[in-house]
Amino acid sequence: MLSTILVEHPWLTTTTLVALVVVGPLLGAWLVGRQRTTAVLLALALLVVAALTLVPTSRDLERGCWVEWTVPTPGAVELVANVILFVPVVLLLGVLLQRPLLALLTASAGSLLVETVQALAPALGRSCSTNDWLSNTIGAALGALLAVLALVLHRRLRGVGAAV
C-alpha cells in the first residue's frame, strides 16, 4: 500500500527528505539534553522501521534475496523511501548518545540484521536486497550528518545564550 502511494505521488519522498534536512538539525539541537523526549521519539522511529520492514505481507516471493547496487535517485521512490527510513533513527540516536558515528554504525548493522531476517524468514513475504541495506546506510549517514549539525548548532546557541 505504501509503495502504491509513493509511486502515485513520487514528490512525497523528495519533499520528506528535504524537510528532514531542513528541520532535522533544528529539532535535534532542541532535543539535546532532553533525553526522555528524544528516547520516546527514537522508539517511535524504530517502531516505524520495524513495521515497514518486518510486518508480514501477503506477497508470494519469486526470489528471496537480490544482490544489486543501485544508488538512490529522486525518481527511484522505493530507494529514496529506504534512505528516509533511517534518517530520523540516526539523527535521534546520534543526538541522544551525542555520538553520531556510533549511531551510523549501529543503524547500518541494524539494517543488515533486518535484511538477514527477511532472507531467513520467507514467510514474512519480504525480499532482502543489498539495495535496501545500501539505501538505509546512506540514510543513516545523512542522519549522522544532521546529528553532527544539531550538536554543533546546540553548542553555538548555548554559547550565545551564555554570553547574553
Protein traits:
164 residues; mainly alpha; 6 helices; 2 strands
Q: Topology, please?
A:
Blueprint: H1 2-8, H2 11-31, H3 35-54, E1 65-66, H4 77-97, H5 100-120, E2 128-129, H6 130-163
Parallel strand pairs: 1-2
Domain VanZ-like: 62-149
Transmembrane segments: 12-32, 39-59, 79-97, 102-121, 133-153
Keywords: Membrane, Transmembrane, Transmembrane helix
Describe this structure in words.
This protein has 164 residues and is mostly helical. The chain has one domain. Helix content is 76%, strand content 2%. It has 6 helices and 2 strands, in the order αααβααβα. The protein has a two-stranded parallel ribbon with strand order 1-2. Helix 2 crosses helix 6. The longest helix has 34 residues. The radius of gyration is 17 Å and the shape is globular. The model has no long low-confidence stretch (mean pLDDT 89). This is VanZ family protein. Keywords: Membrane, Transmembrane, Transmembrane helix. It comes from Nocardioides malaquae.
Order of helices and strands: HHHEHHEH
Uncertain runs are: none
| Straight-line distance between termini | 52 Å
Strand content: under 5%
Query: Whole-number radius of gyration?
Result: 17 Å
The total domain count is 1
Our count of helices gives 6
Mean of pLDDT:
89
- Write out the strand line-up for the largest beta sheet, numbering strands in chain order: 1-2
Major sheet summary line: 2 strands, parallel
Helix proportion: over 70%
**Record field, number of beta strands:** 2
What shape does the CA trace take?
globular
Helix/strand/pairing category: mainly alpha
